[in-house]
Amino acid sequence: MCGIVAIIGNQPVAGRLVDALKRLEYRGYDSAGIATLYESVMERRRAKGKLFNLEKLLSDEPLAGTIGIGHTRWATHGIPNETNAHPHFIEGVAVVHNGIIENFSELRDELTAGGAVFTTQTDTEVVAQLVARYKRQGLDNRAAMLAMLNDVTGAYALVVMFADDPDTLMAARFGPPLAVGFGRGEMFFGSDAIALAPFTNEIAYLVDGDCAIIHRGGAEIIDFAGNPVERPHQISQATAFVVDKGNHRHFMEKEIYEQPEVISHALSHYVDFQTHTLRANDTGIDFGKVSGLAISACGTAYLSGLIGKYWFERYARLPVEIDVASEFRYREIPLSKDQAALFISQSGETADTLACLRYCRDEGLKIGAVVNVSESTIARESDAIFPILAGPEIGVASTKAFTCQLAVLASLSIRAGRARGTLDGADEKQLVRHLTGMPRIMSQVLNLIQPQMESLARDLSKFKDVLYLGRGTSYPLAMEGALKLKEISYIHAEGYAAGELKHGPIALIDENMPVIVIAPHDRFFEKTVSNMQEVAARGGRIIFITDEKGAAASKLPTMATIVLPDVPEIIAPMVFALPIQLLAYHTAVFMGTDVDQPRNLAKSVTVE
Ligand code: F6R
């Protein structure tokens, strides 16, 4: 999603703005730009595509100035090109914006009728036009900013720079995140703490309805009516993390290989590795008392929630209502106050997930957040935070956040089972023992399958369509496999419940569509094998991801069989996630796509 940075300091800012934008690259973007103010003149450089295009432009035509704003744009209104790239300039007002101005076409018509000339297709330009109009009408900068904020509706984070004031930057938030960074003699705005990490770790997050005004010496925060408000300063952890690929080719590869380590970290928050029991930390949600659980999330996070549903229902006999957040928020689901709701989000900023959270909160449910970014909006608006502790995930395709979400959901389902009396102490010990053995098994698996995944990826890259099948928790995993493959290799892929094969997708089976079957030797194995037989009988090519027992039990011919160790059922989704991640990764690498920043995708989707 779009990224924003702004600096007001005492040294040239152009290079620093670009460096900060690089740290926001992980959010996804298709053009970028910066503007600075020097001796009362605002100038900008903008470029379509990746930041190196902007850097090249800046090396040919540098920008001076100790105050400036920068932006990476992920196109919503108007194609990605230089004209639509931010910052937008109107009569000495420069604007960068993340989000959507919903009433932009009414405003645009009104401004056009008043003589304004629009030069871009963006919704953002109305912000600059409105501020410029109010200034023309005689309002000072602050009043013009507030007047504009009272005109626009939608979800936005924006920063405004004024050519007639080299000592001030103004920003506002209503939806997408925006943070104020406090330095020594210099101040910042940034979409997140990661962008500001090289400059400062002292952060104040704006909340919806905040307008912030920064000078070199500090910040003033007001509401849209102009009344002062206070926001707490926090010391961000983002500074501690080096956003670096290490010895890996891509962040995604690094993040896949980090999983054993980060899962240990995540688990140690919930379970005691020595006693194999759950930690007694207060979760904020009494699973023993709730009548049901509502879960909502988007994309990969939704699929982890779907696996969580199997666990909560099986181990805790707790009914779970789950849907993707974009549907959940509009379904008018009858909910009751004795239910709890869980929202799963790596970024903690996904607009649809946040909207569901607010809906459930208004309905009186207890809210839990399963998040990676503990300072995020979703975390801050929840009664209970269940951190997944995966560390910053930079690759747009989620990998380690997925398995850490699963580790947390598995732990919570055991906790729920104990609280509801469906699991006893011995069950708890056994399940926790399985979880604590998982990081070691994941390390073994990563080493074991790497060469096979690389060579299989070469074969897979020749196909245009791929089908993934699974039963039980392997069904959401099949959907996750398909999602990973399509988002980074651009090969069309679908994930299906294996039992649904004969209700439609079987019509597609031929030698041109490989079928990836995820089937540990579990309760469903025999049934999945009979679906494989249906595929084989129609000339379909099978890539069989199974365990040692499964490989021994099936005699069907396959295009490839990936054999993992036999593992307990509760950890199978995390262990079986590894081959599907690596297969997608190597296929994309082989095809030469932009693995870490696939086309059209954003890491943090802060618009609806
Ligand atoms: C896919 C992927 C997305 C995210 C989804 C939710 O690899 O990363 O599907 O899972 O956009 O994002 P968060 O978890 O930040 O709410």
Question: How would you sum up this structure, described in words?
Answer:
By secondary structure, the chain is an alpha/beta fold. The protein folds into three domains: 3-240, Aminohydrolase, N-terminal nucleophile (Ntn) domain (Glutamine Phosphoribosylpyrophosphate, subunit 1, domain 1), CATH 3.60.20.10; 244-423, 3-Layer(aba) Sandwich (Rossmann fold); 447-592, Rossmann fold (3-Layer(aba) Sandwich). The protein has 18 helices and 26 strands. Strands 3-2-4-1-10-9-11-14 form an eight-stranded antiparallel β-sheet. Strands 5-6-7-8-12-13 form a six-stranded antiparallel β-sheet. A hairpin with a 2-residue loop joins strand 5 (88-90) and strand 6. It is globular, with a radius of gyration of 26 Å. The termini are close together. The mean pLDDT is 93.
Question: Could you write a compact summary of the structure shown?
Answer:
Helix content is 37%, strand content 23%. Strand 12 and strand 13 form a beta hairpin.
Beta-strand segment tally: 26
Q: What is the structural class? A: alpha/beta
Heteromolecules bound: fructose -6-phosphate
Low-confidence stretches: none
Helical residue percent band: 25-40%
CATH C-level category of the largest domain: Alpha Beta
What is the CATH architecture term of the largest domain? Answer: 4-Layer Sandwich
**Average pLDDT for all residues:** 93
